[in-house]
Amino acid sequence: MVRNVAELLPELEEEDFYLLSGVEQGMRFSEWVQREKIPKFANLTEEEVDYRLERCLKRGLVEKKTIQYEGYTLQFEGYDALALRALVERETISEFGSPLGVGKESDVYEVRSYKPLALKYHREGYTNFREVHKERDYTSDKDHVSWMYTARKAAEREHDILEELYPDVAVPRPIDQNRHAIVMEKMDGVELSRTRLEPDQVLGVFDLLVTEIAGAYEAGYVHADMSEYNVFVNEEGVKVFDWPQAVPTDHANADEFLQRDLENVLGYFRRKYPQYVPDDLESDDLAASIADGSFESVRE
Predict the structure, then answer these.
(1) Catalytic: which of 200, 225, 242, 280?
(2) What pLDDT, on the 0 to 100 scale, is given for residue 130?
(3) Which structural domains are found in the chain, ordered by start?
C-alpha cells in the first residue's frame, strides 16, 4: 500500500515541489534521472538540489540508485504529492479524509470541498506495468512505458469517459483530474458484492444494472470489467464505477467484452439468488438486444 502523503503537504516547501517536478520531467526520458541533469529540470542550483533531494529522500518521495550513474526516481508518494498539491491549489480539495478503498490498481480517499468527494489515485503499472501495458489499449501503442505514464493515462482516460457518460449513465460525477488522480462524486450506498437484496428487489436491481450497461453502450462505451465489485447499490438505484479499461463500441472486441460483462453480472445474480433469476435469461440474448438497440427491460 502506498503511504498517504496528505499529512506531508504542510511541511513541504515550494522548492521541494520544484525538485519533485524536475525529477518527474526527467523521467520522461529515463526511469532513473541522472543527478547532474536535475538542476536544469528543476530550475534549482546544485546546492539547492542537494538539500531538496535529502529532504525528499527522508520523506520517501524519491528513491536513489547508483547504477552507471547516480540516479533518482519518483516514488508513488512523490507523484501523489504533486497531484494533490495541484488539486489543492485549484481549490478542488480543501480537506483530506480517510480511505474509502485500497486495491491493486487504485487507492480511494474521502476528501472535501463544498461537500464530501472521492479522490482516486490510479496505481496501474507501479508493480506490473509490463502486464498492464500489454493488456490496456491506452498504452499499447508505446514500446516503452513507465508506471507513471501508465497511471496518468488511466486517470485521463477514466476522467474523459466519465465526462462523456455522466449524467445519462449512472456513473460518479467527475470533478477534476491531475496526473494519476481523479476527484469525483463520493458514492452513497453499498458495493453490490456486500449487498443482501430482498427477494422482490433482485430482478429490479439486475434490471437497473443491465439498463446502465445498455445506456453506456448507446453512449459509445463497454465497461469491459463489469462485476459485483464495481457497482454501488442504494435506495436511488445503482451506480457503476471503475471505467479506465472501457472500450468504445467500435472496438474490434467490443461485443465480446459486452457479452462477458453480462455473463459476469448474470452469473453473480444466479449464484447468489438462484431462485429469483428466471431460467430463460441468457447473456447472449441480452447482449444482442443491447447491441441492436432493442433492449428495454429484463422484466418484460
Answers:
(1) 225
(2) 38
(3) 6-78 (1.10.10.10), 93-185 (3.30.200.20), 190-291 (1.10.510.10)
